[in-house]
Write a structure and sequence with these properties.
Blueprint (H helix, E strand, L loop, with lengths): L10 H6 L20 H7 L4 H6 L1 H14 L7 E2 L6 H5 L5 E3 L3 E3 L11 H7 L4 H4 L1 H14 L5 E6 L1 H10 L7 H9 L1 H25 L3 E6 L7 H7 L1 H17 L7 E5 L6 H5 L5 E3 L6 H8 L4 E6 L8 H14 L7 E5 L9 H24 L1
Parallel strand pairs: 1-4, 4-5, 5-6, 6-7, 7-8, 8-9
Antiparallel strand pairs: 2-3
Helix pairs in contact: 2-4, 4-8, 8-11, 9-10, 9-11, 10-11, 11-13, 16-17
C-alpha cells in the first residue's frame, strides 16, 4: 500500500467508528460535479467516462469541492461512477447528454447469449479498473491529509437494474420481468456482481480509500419482501466478505456505508446488515430513524437536495429540523444530503448549507451543555 501524509482531519472516521466527536462531520454526495463551474473547465471536451478513466482529471474533479469549501467539509469522494463494474464485465455503457447512462446492448433474457458470456467471463477488476485505483492514490497524495477519501461502488440490485433496463427507467419493466420470471438466473448474476464489488472495494482501500460506500440507488423499486430477497442478501455479502478480503491483503478494515435510496421500509434490516453507517434519503424522518436505529449504527443524511434551490431562510429551516432530528448532531451522525447535489444548484447555496450545519450544530451543542 502506498504511503500517505498523516490525516489531519479524522472527524468523519472517528464518527463512523462511533467515537466521541466535537461536532458532526459534513460532506455531500455528488459534491464533485457539474453544478461547479470549475468542473466544466477541468472536464473540457472529454466525455463523462473519459474523465473517470483519466486519473489526473478524476483526481482534479475530486479535489474541487475540497478546495472551494475548505474548512467546511470533512471528506472527499473519488470522482467515478457506479457503472464501471458493468463496463469491467464487458458491457458497453455510454453517458448521453440530457439522458444519462445508456447501455446499447442490455441483457434481454438468460438465453440471449450475453447472459451466459457474462456469467462465464472471468473479470479481472484489478486490471479493468486500474484507472480508479490510480485516481484514488493520486488523490490521497494531493489531499496531503486534509480530509479522508471515500471509495464506492454500486449495489448489485441497482447494477442489475441498469444492465437489463439499458439505463434509467420509470416503470422498471425489464428488471421486474427478470426477477419474477427468471429469479434463479437473476440471483446468480446478483451474486457474481456482489463478489466483484468485494474485490473492487478492497482494491480501492489498497489504493488509499479510507471509507467505502455502497449505493443502492434503485432500492425503492422493490417491495419489502422483494428487497429481502433480491437486494439485502447481496448487500450483506459485501459487508461480510470485504473485511475478510482486506485481511487477506493485510489491510486494516475501513468503515462501510450503505445508502439504499427509498428503502425507508428496510431501515431496521439495514441497521443489522453489517455496515457501520446507514445513509438516509430525505423521505425519512431523522428522529424516527434515530429511534429505529437505536444506537446500532451511525446515520448519514438526509436533507432534501431540492432545498438548495431555495433561499437562505429555507435552507436554515431544513438544517435546523435535520440537526434537531438527529439529536442535536452531537454523536453518531454524518451530515449529508438525502441524495446527490442536483444540476443548476448555486454553489453559494451549498456553501450556506455547510455553514448553517456548523452554526446550528454548535448552537445545539452549547444548549445541551447548559442543561
Amino acid at each position: 500500500m502506498p504511503e500517505f501524509d498523516a490525516l489531519r482531519n479524522d472527524l468523519l472516521l472517528r464518527t463512523a467508528r462511533r467515537e466521541r466527536v466535537e461536532r458532526p462531520p459534513i460532506w455531500v454526495m455528488r459534491q464533485a460535479g457539474r453544478y461547479l463551474p470549475e468542473y466544466h473547465e477541468a472536464k473540457g471536451e472529454n466525455d463523462f467516462f473519459a474523465c473517470c478513466r483519466s486519473p489526473e482529471i478524476a483526481s482534479t474533479l475530486t479535489l474541487q469541492p475540497i478546495d472551494r469549501y475548505d474548512g467546511l467539509i470533512d471528506a472527499a469522494i473519488i470522482f467515478s461512477d457506479i457503472l464501471v463494474i458493468p463496463q469491467a464485465m464487458g458491457m458497453t455503457v455510454e453517458m448521453l447528454d440530457r439522458k444519462g447512462p445508456h447501455f446499447p446492448d442490455p441483457l434481454r433474457s438468460p438465453t440471449d447469449g450475453q447472459y451466459e458470456q457474462l456469467m462465464n467471463r472471468k473479470v479481472d477488476v484489478a486490471q479493468e479498473l486500474d484507472y480508479v485505483y490510480q485516481a484514488i492514490t493520486m488523490t490521497r497524495h494531493k489531499l496531503k491529509g486534509r480530509v479522508p477519501l471515500y471509495g464506492f461502488c454500486g449495489a448489485p440490485w441497482t447494477l442489475l437494474c441498469y444492465m437489463v433496463e439499458g439505463g434509467g427507467s420509470k416503470l422498471f419493466v425489464q428488471v421486474k420481468t427478470w426477477i419474477y420470471r427468471y429469479p434463479d438466473q437473476s440471483k446468480k448474476l446478483l451474486q457474481k456482481i456482489a463478489e466483484l464489488c468485494v474485490e473492487y472495494l478492497a482494491l480501492q482501500v489498497q489504493a488509499g480509500a479510507q471509507i467505502v460506500q455502497v449505493f443502492d440507488s434503485w432500492a425503492a423499486e422493490l417491495s419489502p419482501a422483494s428487497f429481502r430477497e433480491f437486494a439485502l442478501p447481496y448487500l450483506r455479502h459485501i459487508s461480510k466478505y470485504l473485511p475478510d478480503r482486506l485481511k487477506e491483503l493485510r489491510l486494516e478494515c475501513v468503515p462501510m456505508v450503505i445508502f439504499a435510496k427509498g428503502a425507508w421500509y428496510a431501515l431496521d434490516d439495514l441497521c443489522d446488515s453489517g455496515y457501520q453507517v446507514v445513509g438516509l434519503d430525505w423521505l425519512q424522518d431523522p428522529a424516527e430513524a434515530v429511534r429505529i436505529a437505536n444506537g446500532r449504527v451511525v446515520l448519514q443524511g438526509n436533507a432534501d437536495p431540492g432545498v438548495l434551490y431555495g433561499d437562505k431562510d429555507a435552507i436554515t429551516a431544513v438544517v435546523q429540523d435535520m440537526v434537531q432530528g438527529f439529536g442535536g448532531g452531537k454523536q453518531d451522525w454524518i451530515a449529508n444530503l438525502g441524495h446527490g447535489v442536483t444540476p443548476f444548484v448555486d454553489p453559494d447555496n451549498l456553501r450556506y448549507f455547510f455553514e448553517e450545519i456548523h452554526r446550528v450544530a454548535a448552537t445545539e451543542t452549547r444548549s445541551s451543555a447548559k442543561v
